[in-house]
Every structure is written in structure tokens, then in C-alpha cells.
Amino acid sequence: xxxxHDVYPVDVAGIRRNLxxxxxxxxxxxxxxxxxxxxxxxxxxxxxxxEKLRPSQVDVIVTAEAxxxxxxxxxxxxxxxxxxxxxxxxxxxxxxxxxxxxxxxxTGKPQxxxxxxxxxxxxxxxxxxxxxxxxxTGSTLQSMDxxxxxAGGSVVAQAAVFTEGDRSQWQDIIALGHLPxxxxx
Length: 185
Hints:
alpha/beta, Rossmann fold, five-stranded parallel β-sheet, four-stranded antiparallel β-sheet, 11 strands, 24% helix
């Protein structure tokens, strides 16, 4: 049985999608962008973001372990640079991992991001672009920035497919579009 959902239509670098609206709090809905498995959208977004990021002379792409992983990979391929994923769970093989806490709007609870000890060397002294699929509260960006600073890297750009919420809050973000927050009442 298929449920009927309200959707919000978007265009990402010429690719049209209908994003399902999802309630994150009573009377508050957001449009959910799920790029996992959407090769066409990921590649189009990576190409468009790469063009916007080139002037920043990025050395390394950094993302958090989430739906943005395929975007970070495709962007790294487009820009011919390495990429690093900040993990959500610590594993013993990660050695002396750096860490920072974040609060994602989609999970609604605190999470810790970890940088594998081996990846610290990749970031040290490098120009970093932080990448996410959607930037909503900025909490994940702050945590990623914190870890990059701990590792000795320098954040030179922050990018996403979409920003969300108060558009004026995201003037410094390189994005392909903006999503409103839908409220009833």
C-alpha cells in the first residue's frame, strides 16, 4: 500500500525531483532530500558545486557520515582531490581519533563525529571544503569545522546542495538552492 505524501518540487542543476515533506516537530515540516542511490542527481550536483568551489582552491573535501557521502565522493572526483568522512561511531582501528558533538535536525538527538587518526594527516595544513547535502541548523558544520581545526586544517568553503530555513543565515554557504521550512498555523 502506497501512502500519499505532500511534496515540494525542486530543480538541482537541471534535474527535477519531488521532495517528500516530513514532520520534524508539531506543525513543522521539512522537505527531505535523499540523494542515496540517485546517481543522476549526485553527479549533476557535484559538477555544479565543483564549479562554484574551484575559486576556493580546495585541497580536501570533508563530510559527515550521512546521506552526503556520495556527494563528497563525486565532488572529490570532479575536483581531483582526496575526501574524508567524519564517522558517527568510534572504532578501535581509528586510533587517537579527534571528535566533536553535533545535533542534527533529522535525528533530533546529539551525535558525536570522529576523525580517524590516519585522516588527521590528510587535513593538516590543507584547505578544506566542508560538504553536506542540506544545511539546516549549522550544527553539523560547526562540528566538522571544530574537527578540521583540531587537525590543523583550514576551512576555506562550506557547500551543500541546499540550505534550509532562514536564508539570511546562510549567505556564506555555497549552495545550489534553498528549501523553506513549512509551518502550519
